[in-house]
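tool_call predict_complex ligand=guanosine-5'-triphosphate
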Amino acid sequence: MSQQYYNGNGKGKGKAPADPDSEEQMPITGPSNANSTDNSFPFPTTTMRQPGPPNPGYMTVGGSGTTSYHASKLQNLIDTDSGYGDSSMAESVAWGRPLVGPNFHEDSPIHSLPPSHSTSQANLPQPDHRLHAAAIHQLWYNQHRGNLGRSISRAVDMLEGLQEMNVKWPAHYPSVQRTEVDMPARPSSRPGFQHTNTFSQHEFGSMSSPPQPLRRAMTSFDDYAESSCSNDSKPPEPRLVSPQIAQEFSILKLDLKLGALHQAELVHSLEKSSVASLLDGKIRSSIKHLQSLRERIEDTASKVLVTGDLNAGKSTFCNALLRRKVLPEDQLPCTSIFCEVLDSRENGGIEEVHAVHKNAVYNRNDESTYDVHQLKELEKIVLDNVKYTQCKVYIKDIRSIDQSLLNNGVVDIVLIDAPGLNSDTTKTTAIFTRQEEIDVVVFVVSAMNHFTQTAKEFIWAAAAEKAYIFMVVNGWDVIRDKERAEKAILDQVAGLSPRTHKESSELVHFVSSNAIPMAPGAPGGPGGSGSSSGGGGGDDPSDPKGKGKEKEKVQDFQKLEQSLRRFVLEKRARSKLAPAKTYLTNILNDVITLAEVNNEVAQSELDRVNKELREIEPALESSRRNRMEIGDEIEKNVEGVCNDVFDNTRTTLNTTIAEAGDECLNVPYPGLFSSFQYADDLKDAILSRVTASVADCEEYARQKTVGGVNILKQLGLKHLGNDYADIQFRPSVMFSRRRDALAKQVDIPTEAWDFVDWNSLLQSQEKFVGRSMAVTLATAVGSRLIGGPTWFDHAITAAKVMGSENLRKMAVPGAALAAVLAVWYVLNQIPNTLPHRLSTKIAAELDAIDYVHANSTRVSNSVRKVLRIPGENLRTGLARCVEQLSTKREETMKLRTESDVAHKYFSNLVRKGREQRSGLDAIDLEAPPPGASHY
Ligand SMILES: Nc1nc2c(ncn2[C@@H]2O[C@H](COP(=O)(O)OP(=O)(O)OP(=O)(O)O)[C@@H](O)[C@H]2O)c(=O)[nH]1
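tool_result ok
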């Protein structure tokens, strides 16, 4: 038994009762009630105690004339400081309800009075003191409520901020890798829930302890285009998030029940943006839930949801609580709609059923939203699941104020009997949703069937905000080996709700609801008197042993009722405020975990982009420089090769053409009669020589081009690395088209004069004529002349001797002889003179058509054309490199800004989240109000 809970036995005896949590009913009542014994208004006076079972007795505290100055002051405080500005006192009065307060529970400060004082005061309650104590408790409750309300507002702001951030910078959701998925995350069977414990300082301590280094599984770093300029820096490998972190989420857990994949794997396989949008949905629903939580803690009523598996005995249990057969019970599934049982005073004291129309929002004052039925018609309504989804059952609780749950004098209770889980998916989902607006969950489980899978899932879902779940193990009468069954069920509870298990003596009850006797003559309802289900589990009532057993069952149930009252009424801070605190703690833990992960991700991205920028900046700079320098180098290389080729072609061709006549052309002279053929052959030979020379030049150009291409390739590889797109170059294709039909271009007709080399002929003729004349004269003049110094002198001398007349007569035969000699000479000289003559003619012709220059230009242009391609390719590559690096730099800078913003935001969120969590931690709903021990 936890010290947080009152034992139950003998409770109230000798102990000053007061309600620490009551807000609506201040324990103030008029003296007129002091001696009232009426059960319907059973307020014990300060001197009288309510007889009966060891229930928490009620007291009448204070009186119109007895309230002290301090009490009035405190009362004023309460009226003005309700945490939300409302006056609970005023509400109570307005509702016309008795202003009473239940006893203080066990941990109430009243119990800490010294024994002597306690004994002396036990039978003489001190109205002022109790009023003070109650007022202090009320203040304390209101303060907590106010703090929680503010905490909820801050959490909503925080989540809205996170939602906005999630749009700008899709949040990273921790996930695990497949190998890690299968690791058992925790010993319990409960998946993914760790933060339900909102009360343990130890656990908070561990939560706020420095977080373990986070590891990340999302490979969500954008893969940048790898450095295109030999910049091979890769982003660091993302680290892995430990499975625990992924498992730790309770509210923001992405519940992806798709296919056979584990949810963590599924998250891992999703796009970053899809995860972010799923997360957005979770955040949105969490904001909605927080808003409804705020409404719930502001709501003065407490909603108790009785749920559990189909046929677990929920209706029977509710009837047993009411001691009336109000709700239909059946062996077959019968509750198909939500039945909310309320005190009939909230319906002007009239007992009736309001069956709420589908899709209508119930308004008691608007009859169009519901149909009115009598209580006895309830069974029919409950079975008719087509027209209605819920009904409000207003009943008079026949039990006394200290026994009744509905008419408890403390707080308005709504008891909700839900359809059984597993009846169908829609209803099961509706129950899951409904529990979110509920303060207290009473989970009825069949003693025989234990917890089904849906039951477990429901409890896990409820645990997001309810650390404590009131568990009713029903049908205990049919269990033989009770000890074993109890252990088995408690073990299961330990796995499902550790906090509930820890306080199992208060929160887990083994009962037989059908054994509870119904009030005789209870009005309305489907059943009459007798036990809830008209039986006692088969026990024979005439058997004294059986009677003993019956008594035991009733006592067990009464014990349950006391615990439930304590949980719902006295421990309101726990039942009403604790769910809000639990949910807040869980959502804050989730937000902090998410923020820590994202803070680290943002930090690592920031580091990465900074590192990248440090690499990109110089790379971009050198890339720009390269582009300029290499551009020049390309030009220089291409022009160098082209000029070389041009010069080489021109020189080679000029030389070839000039020397063509001198070279051995290997054309045999066929004789005088084939002179023209010889001339043609010679022409062909000379032109072939020139053509061969052109081919040599082309070959030279080809080799030079290969060299040039290689230089460009080397440049490309050096400056572009692997990004250099090599272009295949086939040198053989160069100059493959027949370059020149030189023979056609150079059409030189052979003329007769071509055979005569006039220069040499003239020289020879002069020689021949002179010689023939000299010979003639010498012969004529005779020996007189012999011994002269030269033939010319002789000729002169002879001419003088002969006289001009004789000379004239000899001229004709001399000339004829000279002509004959000349012709003979010319014909003889053809093989020597014709090649020169033709080569000169061809050279002149080639010169006329600018052959050498044209070919030099053609060949060098061809080389230029070929070299331009890799040159341009290299230029484009360099330009692309600069462009890519610039784009990358811009993107990286943008990412740096985003990561920086995200880093600041998430580190701020971690700080704010932790602050809020410690603020929330300081709201100690378990501790007694400070100063209450003085009363
Ligand atoms: N032996 C035994 N039978 C019980 C007990 N409580 C309920 N029953 C029987 O169990 C059957 C189902 O009871 P209900 O109260 O209708 O169960 P339920 O959970 O409300 O059913 P649905 O709302 O239809 O899911 C009835 O026949 C009850 O008489 C119990 O403690 N012991």
